[in-house]
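Let's do one together. I've listed all components of the complex below, 622 residues spread over two lines.
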Amino acid sequence: MRKLVQSFIAVLLLSLLLLYVSNRLNEAEGYAGDNTLIVYNWGDYIDSELITMFEKQTGLKVIYQTFDSNEAMMAKIAQGGTTFDVAVPSEYAVSKMKEEGLLLPLDHKKLPNLKYIDPRFLNLSFDPNNRYSVPYFWGTVGIVYNRDMLGGKKITSWNDLWDKDLRNQILLVDGAREVMGMALNSLHYSLNDTNKAHLEEAKRKLDALTPNVKAIVGDEIKMLIANEEAAVGVVWSGDAAEMIAENDKLDYVVPKEGSNLWFDNMVIPKTAKNIDGAHQFINFMLDPKHAAQNAEYVGYSTPNKKALEYLPKEIVDDKRFYPDFDSIEHLEVYENLGKRMLAYYNELFLEFKMHRK
Amino acid sequence: MRRLTWGNAYLLIVFIILYTPIVYLLVYSFNSGGTMHHFQGFTLEWYKEVFQDTRLLMIVLNTLIVALLSALISTVLGVIGALAIYYVKSRQVKNTLLTFNNVLIVSPDVIIGASFLILFTLAGIKLGFVSVLLSHIAFSVPIVVLMVLPKLQEMSPTWIDAARDLGANEWHILTKVILPFITPGIFAGFFMALTYSLDDFAVTFFVTGNGFSTLSVEIYSRARQGISLSINALSTLLFLLTIFLVAGYYWISQKGSRLYGMWKK
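Okay, and this is what the predicted structure of the assembly comes out as:
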């Protein structure tokens, strides 16, 4: 009995000691109190130096949390329990969150740097007058491929992926809209198609692709393709830019049948506690110098017109990532298809994922 | 020297298979190349990175605090639970209680985690330290019960009768007879709860939030962005800590039994 009581007290004292140390550390770091700002962003989607800079400039402490899909992010915000101050959803998620009342309107007076954004990226259909969101990055979905591993063969269209020579060589990004959109585009349908017959046809076409698909993966696709684990990947443009920076045998193409054009946007969710800090953070990220530094690190295309002046010429002139506007006119932006249609997309995608080789 | 028998060779192979990944990870934590292939040279840079990353250190601390506290509380609750089950007279009730206990152990972590998330949101508990601690206590209690109960059943009921004959009241029976006998079971339960809490991912993943995170969740979210070798360094440190703890536990129990032996003489 004595031994038990002694051990009990020892463990209790030890944990209290650790609790004390951790609280002191928290205070020393400034994480305690109202001095914090919780940013909820995609994984590896910001230059962490900028966060340090922002903390120095404002005295706020940034807690940076990450998500891996719009759906996961919306679920966490809708569910409550966490006080996110800034989030970065894609355009169709913005319109969905707006509908569900998950966003707070922005105070444009507190965002003077908004004037640097290219007017082509403002006042878009998913958020008229940018009441709730400001653009963070934009890009396309396309194919990254390894020239050497394909023996010099060029890929220009989605339909090239169904080539028998690519057996077990393709990695797909794990997103229902991306993969279904690819199949729909390859059949020359719109990637916002809601015709069930078209969707079933797309699903059958995807099933025919399975012998060529090596895996369906998340963010690790960057590492896998750069390390030449597979020759071809269906990815977002910024991921492609990062891979190309690591492995110069890679090339990126936006397929000629059409593809997705997307925008990620900074918003303030209704869970926000530090609304003033959130505005400061958004305005900080809109500063041309900061936007340029961020774009260089992340590899996606910045909508900040003034920031282009601070970026190296070879990045801005790269037509793969900063295409002329007439060459991306045939690209489509995801529309909010509604809950039922989205569930149907997800269901078909899940069936495809479970399809046996 | 003894000849290498087939049995030993088998044992050796199993150990090699189990330890190779850990050694691989350990070796590459010293790689100056920055990747998990091509060892380029020795460096301590990744260890420096770990110790400069206060957020990471705080998470390590959080993980330890949650593990210790949850193991402690669930041990107390689990021992009380095991005693309650032991004292139940009806065989049927006893079996029902045990089944309810075991269902919690075999049900998938994902379901437990999701149900906790729903519960905490409904109850208005902010996700963070408290929610993680509560859920860890909840999934550790059944384990402690399961570790303590066999010890209770092993104990001969005649001891309790004897104690009663000698004039002991219920409190004396509990503290002087039962608890000393089941002490090894209690310690085993505590350590099981500790390790379960330390490496739990699925449940914790659901109930973390507001900047609070534990090591397994943090490593997962970092690994998604491509493994930095600082994760290797951290894993190596944790591995060494575990070895140290195991060795310490072994030493204490060895010393304990020796003292016990001396006292008996």
